[in-house]
Protein: Methyl-accepting chemotaxis sensory transducer with Cache sensor
Amino acid sequence: MTIRNGLSNKLMFATGAAVTAALIGFLGVTGWRTADRVRADVTQLAIKEAQVAANQVGIQLTEAVSAGTAMTAAVTGLLEAGSARRTDLVSVARATALRYPNLYGAWMADTVDRTVGTMLPGTEAVNPKGVFTPYWTKNASGGLDFSTFAFDGSEQWYRGPIASGQSLVTEPYLTKRGDLVTSITAPVTLGGRIVAIGGVDIKLDMLPTMLGALHPFGSGRVMLLSQGGKWLSPPTKGLEMKPYDGIGASEVTQALADGRWRALPGGPDGALRLIYPFSAPGMNTTWAMVMDVPAQVIAQPIYAQLAETATGGLVVLIVVLVTIYGTTKLLIDRPLTRSVRTIEALVDRRYDTVIADRDRTDEIGAIAKALEIFRDKSRQAELLAEAQEAQQRNQLARAETIRSHSQAFDGKVSTLTEAVLKLVGDLDTASTTLKGGADATTLRSTSVAAASEQASANVGAVASAAEQLLASVQEIGRQITLSTEVAASAVVQAQDAKGKVDALAGVAGRISEVIKLINSIAAQTNLLALNATIEAARAGPAGKGFAVVAAEVKELANQTSRATDEIAVQIAAVQSGTGDAVQIIQDIFGTIERMSAISLSIREATDQQGLAMHEVARNIQEASMGTLEVSENISAVSRSASQTGETAGVVSSAAMVLQGKSNELRGEVLSFLSNIRLAS
Structure:
């Protein structure tokens, strides 16, 4: 018998699928964890890059803040000296604009209630509303232009320092010439009171050039947002001072509000976008660096880790499959193939087949030993069945012979009995005639008496023959009783065979218990391997080798469990075959019981024949008594001599016929007894 899709192939397929699924799951978990780790590492590197860029921007702003702070400090000093003039303040602003090359301009503004104007009377550097607002700006040739400007006190550059008493970097704006500029304002205090606002303007046109030269991670880019979420250094030209409308706009707003960085996935071309808020000393506001980290910066380490893990997993898968295939072929497939061939031989009743692997101490050895017991029991059961079948055939033949002889005997006895009864009737008629003729004659009474005695003797002979026939019927009953006892013995033997087959089923059940014990041990081994794996995981890198061994132990435990399950299926098949054998023996037991019932029925029929023969003997005895009565009354025969002679002739003839029939009856009885002896 060729077995396709054997245990080795199924086990290898199942193990391969399990290892592959585990490998895929491990790759997924590894990829997920690697992605998180790489993303976290890259984010930290991006934060450092953003800090560097923020520091560069902060340096530019800090220089401007320092310029504005120095200018307001100089103005404060002049005002505190009490000898300042308006022209002196204008000169301070001009000197500040000239001293710092990165400045776009320098300016001052009196308070809306004209505090400086009150302190320093005059009309120099006033706007159309009469407020002191000197403003120096650099022109295209590098020189300075002087002007004044108007304000109403609601502007951020004025309102912020007035409210906080600190310097402030305003929201950048575009000048009429299209320059991107921001103002650094600071309060001018005198005696603890703000009397004016001083400030410098710095052009931010250099920021896109400076930040555009930065390429973090090779192909990344750095951009800049203002406090209001507008582009200062946009991703594309023309978006200056346009609101941010990219991914995570709400996150950007929150980052500018709380000063915490945000990492936004799903940027352009899959890039990771970092929003890094920052501030510089004296800014008292928050800007945000926007850095796009290329997707390949994160993907490449992940792919490398996955490729390394997949290669190792593939090697492990191949080693596991080869090991399982070789192990199952050697330890399971071949022994089970031999066991299957042995079972096929036993099914074909080839009981001389040698059962291999009996000396093994594992489940295969247990199966081989069970097959050996099954072979021996099957051989014994078959021999017993053959003996019982032969005995049953003999008993059936014997019963058939007895039945046929009994039927023939019954017919002949019935015929002879009827003839005897008829002759007895004739004798009764003749006796009546003799009784009537006895009154007519007395001379022939002696002859008639002799004839009557002869008739009485004949009737006695008939009674003797009837008693012999009764004895033969009783012998038939005894033989039938013996047949019933033989059937009862066959029932006992069938019950013994059923007990042996039940014992075989018990052995198969105990094998199932052993298999359950092995399954329990495999489950405990699996649990220990799981605990070992957990402890190895807790041990970290030092426990990796132990974790591999624990995984192998767990896998072998699973293999043992699946193998014992397959053996349990085979044992269940053996138990099913044993159950069929029990059913067959029960059928034989039922047949023997029916044969015993038939023998009992035959015995009852024979008993009825015995009763009938008793009745015949009784009737013959009554006939004999009647003949004696005829002899006692023979004196009456003498009154009819002529009738006595005729009647005597009739009686003599009837007696001769009766004698012949009696002899024939004796012969039939002897023949019946002889046939019964031969049948028994």
